[in-house]
Specification:
This protein is 68% helix and 4% strand. The longest helix is centred in the first third of the chain and has 22 residues. About 20% of the residues have low confidence. Helix 2 packs across helix 4 and helix 3 packs across helix 4. It has a two-stranded antiparallel sheet with strand order 1-2.
């Protein structure tokens, strides 16, 4: 393996470790009320989003996507519903695929 390929792998591993550490630091209490009060339509939207964004990824990765949406719903800088967060469009750019 070439040195540049090894450096690329090492860099990717560092980024992955950082992502895991960031996710472990997530405080779930602020969004717990959102998670416990999901409507069946909210659950459907989240399930469809997770499939589109990370259908072939781990359960952990899928969970992180749900955390992103719920944290945005809880953040005053984003729309206040799951549907609005998922379909948010800023200048022609959607937040999710």
């Amino acid at each position: 393996m070439e040195i540049s390929a090894i450096e690329d792998l090492e860099s990717e591993n560092v980024q992955n470790v950082q992502c895991v550490q960031d996710a472990q630091n997530v405080q779930s209490e602020p969004i717990e009320h959102l998670y416990n009060n999901l409507t069946s339509y909210d659950q459907y939207l989240l399930a469809k989003l997770v499939e589109c964004e990370a259908g072939n990824q781990s359960t952990y990765t899928k969970t992180l996507i749900i955390f992103v949406v719920l944290n945005r719903v809880n953040d005053p800088n984003f729309p206040n519903s799951i549907k609005e967060v998922i379909y948010q469009n800023n200048n022609g750019n959607y937040q999710f695929s």
